Amino acid sequence: MSAPTSERTDQKTTQQTTGAVSARKGGELVGEHGRTAIADTVVAKIAGMAASEVQGVYAMGAGMARAFGAVRERIPGGRPNVAQGVAVEVGERQAAIDVDVIVEYGVSIPDLGDGIRRNVIGAVEKMCGLDVTEVNVNVGDIHLPGEESRESGEPAEPRVR
């Protein structure tokens, strides 16, 4: 009879010392005291920040998303959307992420894709405890040197003097 009591004590001690850490490592967001729900927008923001930190990513988003983002930033009080160009599907234990990027000219796109995947998977798994099943990287454009002035809407040189 004393052996089972000792086992229970050992199990309880192990649970107390590891707590949520052991539950998160397995992707479990449900514990003995409740459930943790993570909104899609939270995962999208984490993925967006992680992807934009990779050297060689010029901007996030493609097409209309970037156009709306540029308008939103020009409105007084408007802030950049860190989740721009990121789409996520979040389940109870897993997440799938799509990232749209614009790359800097001269960067190896396959290497950049691998770097984005590593960074996004690491950040989402660390911060959310979700198992990331896939990160799809879509390169929508490439930023060429000297394009800054054209993007701001001002000509590079005056047309008339």
Automatic annotation (TrEMBL):
<feature type="region of interest" description="Disordered">
    <location>
        <begin position="1"/>
        <end position="27"/>
    </location>
</feature>
<dbReference type="InterPro" id="IPR005531">
    <property type="entry name" value="Asp23"/>
</dbReference>
<dbReference type="Pfam" id="PF03780">
    <property type="entry name" value="Asp23"/>
</dbReference>
<feature type="compositionally biased region" description="Polar residues">
    <location>
        <begin position="1"/>
        <end position="20"/>
    </location>
</feature>
<protein>
    <submittedName>
        <fullName>Stress protein</fullName>
    </submittedName>
</protein>
<comment type="similarity">
    <text>Belongs to the asp23 family.</text>
</comment>
